[in-house]
Amino acid sequence: MAKDNSFDIVSEPDWAEVLNAIDQVRRETANRYDFRGHSITVDYDDKAHEIHLDAPSGMIMDALSTVVGEKMARRNVSLRFLDYGEVEPHGMDRARRTIKLKAGIATADAKKIQKAIRDLGVKVDTQIQGDAIRVSGKSRDDLQRVIQALKAQDFGIELVFTNFR
């Protein structure tokens, strides 16, 4: 009997790259000419996976939000993982903004992905395991066909394929 091959489909950024991008944002806020003279803080809550920005409202906050997106993109963290909150003014011409990092596949999205795999007509099995989907089959070629088909479709979330065995 042939051994089953498998891989997992997850929706989770590389957390080390996220931390590197946040560190680069902090360094850029200290050195960039249009941020000089302004009190700007960039905090990261690793338990809730949130980035908290505090800066003067208006153009400075907009530029800071743009810098966060640019640094994430340069570190190969997809912008689909970022959920920008509203800019909240909090007195003295200052504002706060929370950027949440999305991780995990919701059950509704997982079922859509499972249906897309079933519609391919490839002999593979899928199982929803919490925030991930395990795809297994006898042929590695079938698994690679599934990966290519899923990369071509848009489910509204970033898909990462891990544990290919």
What class would the helix/strand composition place it in?
alpha+beta
Helix content: 25-40%
Tell me the number of structural domains. Answer: 2
Query: What Rg, in angstroms, do the CA atoms define?
Result: 20 Å
The number of distinct β-strands equals 9
N-end to C-end Cα span? 17 Å
CATH architectural label of the largest domain: 2-Layer Sandwich
Beta-sheet strand percentage? 25-35%
CATH superfamily of the largest domain: YajQ-like, domain 2
Family: Belongs to the YajQ family.
Pfam families: YajQ (PF04461)
Function: Nucleotide-binding protein.
Protein name: Nucleotide-binding protein Sulac_2012
Task: Report what the structure shows.
There is one protein chain. By secondary structure, the protein is an alpha+beta fold. It folds into two domains: 5-12 and 105-162, Alpha-Beta Plaits, CATH 3.30.70.860; 15-101, YajQ-like, domain 2 (Alpha-Beta Plaits, 2-Layer Sandwich), CATH 3.30.70. The chain has helices spanning 15-31, 59-74, 107-120, 140-152; strands spanning 5-10, 41-45, 50-56, 82-84, 88-89, 94-101, 125-129, 132-137, 160-162. Strands 2, 3, 4, 5 and 6 form a five-stranded antiparallel beta sheet that branches. A four-stranded antiparallel beta sheet has the order 7-8-1-9, covered by helices on one side. A hairpin with a 4-residue loop joins strand 5 and strand 6 (94-101). Helix 1 packs across helix 2 (59-74). The longest helix has 17 residues, at 15-31. The chain starts with a strand and ends with a strand. This is Nucleotide-binding protein Sulac_2012. InterPro entries: UPF0234-like_C, UPF0234_N, YajQ-like_sf, YajQ/Smlt4090-like. Nucleotide-binding protein.
